[in-house]
Request: fold
Amino acid sequence: MKKLIALLLALTMVFSLGAVAFADGEDITLDVIICQYGPNTEDWFLGSGMDGTNFVDKFEEANPGIKLNLEVVSWDTVDQVVDTRISSGQAPDILNNDNFSNYAYDELLEPVSQFCPDDLYEDFFPSFIAESVIDDTVWAVPDLASARALYYNVDMFEEMGIEPPTTWAELEDVCQTILDFYDGEVYPWGIDMTSDEGQAAFAYYTWGNGGGFTDDEGNWIVNCDENVEAIEFAISLVNNGYTNPNPATQTRYDLQDMFAAGDMAMLIAPNQLPTYCADKESTVNMATANIPANEGKESASVGVMDRVMAFKDESLSEEETAARDEAIGKFLKFFYDPENYVGWVSMEGFLPAVNSAVGALVEADPSFGAWLDVLDGCRFYPTAMENYDTVREGVVKAEQAALTGADVREELDAVQAQVAPEA
Amino acid sequence: MNKTLQNKIKPYIWLLPSIILMALFVIFPIMIVFRLAFSEVSKSGLMGGFVGLQNFKDAIGLPAFKTVMLNTLYWVISVVGLSTVLGFIIAMVLNQKFHGRKIARAILVFPWATSLVVQASVWNYIIKYEYGNLNNILLNLGIIKEAINWRSSYQIEFLWECGVGIFVTIPFVAFCVLSGLQSIDGTLYEAADIDGASYWDKLWRITVPLVKPSLTVSTVLNIIYVFNSFPIIYTMTRGAPANKTDTLVTYLYMLNFYDRQKGPATALSVIGFLVLCICAGVYMVGVMRKEEEL
Amino acid sequence: MNDTNAIAKKNRTALLLFLISLALTAVVLSLPAYRFTSSVYTKKSANTFVGDEKYTEVRAEVDAVAEEYRASGMDVSVSESVTERTNSKGEATSMVAFSVDQEFTKTGWSFLGSGLGSAWVLLAMLLCMVMSTACAAAGVIGSMGDDWHHLDGRSAAFRTASGVLALAALLLVPVFFMMNTYLMSRRVGLYLDELIPEGKDAFFAKLDGFLFGGQAGENIDDMLDGLRFRNTGAVWMVLPFAAAMMLAGIQIRNGSITHTLVRGLLYAFVIVLCLFILYPYYVMLVTAFRSIAETNDSDFLHLLPTQWRFGNLKDIVDRGVLRYLLNSLLIAGGATVIALLCGIPAAYAMARMRFKGKSVFLGFVIVSQMFSPVVLLIGIAQLIAALHLNDSIVGLMLINAAFNQAFAIWLLRGTFVSISPEMEQAAKIDGCNTVGSLVRVLLPMAAPGIVTTLIFVFINAWNEFTISSVLISTASNRPITVGITQFSNLNMIEWQNLFAASLLATIPVVILFMCIEKHLTSGLTSGGVKG
Reply:
């Protein structure tokens, strides 16, 4: 009996100790969640990867009165972490993620205008900002971007004496040539239709065939003829043996590993592929070309952007909210300060989202200039649309089902029916 | 009078710490799940108003519902069934006296001592076609002539997942049985030997009945754990292609965080709960009735 | 007591079996062991359909070449393969590949002179069989009629050696095949692709001598490139003879084949089981110390790392792995203590006391397990926030303890029930109260159950991932399962670091287990409790 009471007492004490630790003083503490982009992310923010110091220490030193409770979360779990925190009333103040629209539609976000200083706002590429607008309000700012292009193994193409393909027909011929030349020991082409990246495959092929997720008015056109043709083409590449054998489970990173090891001749990958290959100690000699499109159709470069957003905190008074907004503004200013931001973007091998960083980046690596041009003409996923998640999951499932022999049109019809029932 | 009252309350006091612990950290979250299952849930997880059975209707109407339920059935039956049989055999062997038994038992702990995410990653790496270790070792030992694609279809991938599931579950069953075997009084066997009983007689008349209680517990819990097992399938295939390798738990996870159909996802978890309740209930009623008869 | 004559007869039969097996092995080795097909000439013809003009033309050309070879006394045949496909313009095209093949066989005996590694294996196998027979003869002759209990040391040793040698011969048979496959397909391929640098000329010269009688010379690369081979299964027939020798060896050693075989199978089973279980850990170990390029090597060049990179360990330690391990120890240790402190009284009440709602409670305990932690996260997060246990190790201890209550209560209850209450009653008569009799009498007797529970809870808490990944926000509070995810991100899997960290995470659990393993075996049976 006494033991039990002692145990209960001990538990109570532990709880109350925890409570005391949280009753903090005057400082504003910002809860920040950052996604883990690569092996160095955590070291840069929290360790010693920023020339011996780290982002948080440097920020707190420069901004007394603001404390950062910064957490680097793996991409695998970030949605789970954030959603759970939201449902238990502990949404972070600042979140870095790839998707903002669900939080915006649930009215959880603060409009950017409330916390982003004007001079910083002016600094963002306008075309990027436009991707984060719902109902004429900007809900998030881009933190970085990447553009995707066709990467090919230069040594192999020189050995075979051929040029990278520009059309689908050429693509098929090149694939067959590679298959013949290397006796099937090299995968000519990489396709990733996994749950995490299948939407990219959808974009590569449908955009290259004049189709896509939406039409110009912003209506879903998932099952249009161009899309059906495009996906059937992609599936035929797999069925002809031109690709890696298991597109439904081999992720882009598996493909990149194969490319880095010289086992894959071509793949569509983001511009940080050279950084990735260097991290993997690879010596592959690579070059880029436009993503092949169907005959007579325009090649579209595919852009992906991640964002920074701020959550509302309704428990705060008006005054406190203003103070918090100011602190968030300071955080953003500090993050996008070229002194910090340039190091961050180039460490991860991404493309910048603000003009002020361009100069320094181009100076350090002239090839950046070309990428910025590509980025200019990039198309992005329609992440601001309300049913984007449903469509993304739908098209990925459709691709995977088609891999196992299902009819592409029927599968895409089913997705379209889910998001646009009246049509 | 006071004494009898004390005696009546006493058992509950002994149970109290356990009850508090479970009520707080298990029962309360379960209640939240039930509340969510009958409410509208937004894409980022905010709870809206009461919607009755709508989430359940949506969940059952999902196109993958049937595939996923069947997969779950195959998964539970194959993993629990085979790991129970193999675990029992291994426990019997490791209960014999032989040189190196201590080491063998320590080795058996390995698969259990490694988290499921890691186990799944290792096997993922092992069966990779392009640079996996299985091809490496078989080629370099001269057992195969060319690298083999070990995951050439989703059916085979699902078999691999079941195999990994069995691999990691065996130690649990084996140690449960082993602890049961330990508590068997050795004199029973000596008496049987004097009566001239054969090995199989001893196995069926003495060992199995006496190990049964610990096997019962481990099987019920095993069914529950395997039913709810998530990391193996999530790491190896994410349910791809098109939910063909999903079980209920991985499916509802994907539904929750990829599709963001959080309402139906929660309803699915309640459906899974009910299925388990019925299975475990039937099983336990059967077992406990027998126990009372003894 | 066995009759001397009967024993002598058995021994003579066994010896005869040895000799027959040896003779049959010699016969089997003179059968064709491998059938080889080597292309002496190949010709590919694009845009060719079977039966068209071009086809006929090329076919005639190939036939002429084959005829030439036949004239020089070689046994060759012509084969063709057709690849059909549709080109980008939608037209059907076809390519025909012709090949002039030479077929020949090699017997087991001819391998012995090849100088290949597998020849030595074959030789060792034969020697084992011969020596096994010799040992059997040496062990039996002179003590033909002796009961095996009364053998002198020398005879016994010879007889033992005879069985062991036969077993060795048995095991060498598959090694012979594996070595041949390795040398003639894999090794040749690696040399042809110029993936291994040295020894090519010497090795190819050996193969030339063995396969082509030294005729290939300069053309050896092409000849080997087109070489296909298939084993005829003849050498596998050695297996039953070696097995017969082994059984005969057991027979003359102690007479009880069943007992020896059962023990042998027991050891074989345990060894195979252990190897199988350790296989993933071998993979982790060798991968953990590989260079990145080698973790990703599609030529499968090395079974073991060429250079053991112990720097990988430093890498993961720099990234906080030791701290995560410490956190995991605290969480799992704390959870185990709490789970036992709450579980033992509950199980005791269930086993020894009568009260209303007992079966309801047992059901409630099981029901509490029926949701996956993934689903319960929201509720747990709300509760943890309300208790101000965010981001704390104590919170994880409590959660893990709660999740493992069901197992603890069920298993401990079962253990307690199986122990007769008499001893506790005796202790109570001696003046112990309930708690005293529980601690002093029941718990020591229930050690195996408690140890099982302890391991179970500890391991489950050690491996818990889902809940900690959401509740822990500070890097320094992460358990190892969450810490490891930084090496296996969606963006990049660092195989070597992931596996190094995973191995480190496995070791403490195994050490813990080895420390308490003896309690699994002691306890009830040895304690003489029932008396």
Summary: The CA atoms of residues 48 and 95 of chain C lie 5 Å apart. Chain C touches chain A at residues 85, 87-89, 291-293, 296-298, 319, 341, 345, 377-378, 381-382, 384-385, 387-390, 392, 394-395, 398, 435, 469-470, 473-475, 485-486, 489-494 (CB under 8 Å).
